[in-house]
Specification:
Layout: E1 4-8, E2 13-18, H1 27-36, E3 41-45, E4 51-55, H2 66-74, E5 86-91, E6 97-98, H3 102-113, E7 122-123
Parallel strand pairs: 2-7
Antiparallel strand pairs: 1-2, 1-5, 3-4, 4-5, 5-6
Length: 125
């Protein structure tokens, strides 16, 4: 199964990450924590298609992520600035983390690259 997520840094770098398959232990959670460089994360449901994982303690130690903040405000899902890298994926009805479909990833990339923030989001090849 294709389990790709998108990672957006505070500098506007957008890259793709292959999530591991669900397995024993918390392999997916570990991959998310590693990708956004945190010990504890929280999930914000932006839309029916996108979830955003962020550093739960980042408010105190990470640089401002204007891109993630703007997207969160746009959907009315956050009420304070976000800090550090964030990861975008989705979940099934049971709450298991899933990768984005190609259409979901393309729509999210378009949303992020269309934000009126300078410098604009840069998509890694």
């Amino acid at each position: 199964m294709d389990r790709k997520a998108l990672v957006l840094t505070h500098t506007g770098q957008l890259s793709q990450l292959q999530l591991p398959d669900q397995g024993p232990g918390d392999v997916v959670g570990r991959a998310i924590r590693e990708a956004i460089e945190c010990a504890y994360f929280e999930v914000v449901r932006l839309t029916d298609a996108w979830d955003m994982w962020l550093d739960e303690e980042g408010l105190f130690s990470k640089p401002l992520n204007l891109y993630a903040t703007a997207l969160g405000y746009q959907y009315g899902r956050i009420y304070h600035p976000l800090r550090g890298a964030v990861l975008f994926a989705t979940a099934d009805a049971h709450g298991d983390t899933l990768g984005l479909t190609p259409d979901q990833a393309a729509a999210l990339r378009a949303q992020l690259t269309g934000l009126e923030i300078f410098p604009p989001v840069s998509v890694a090849s």
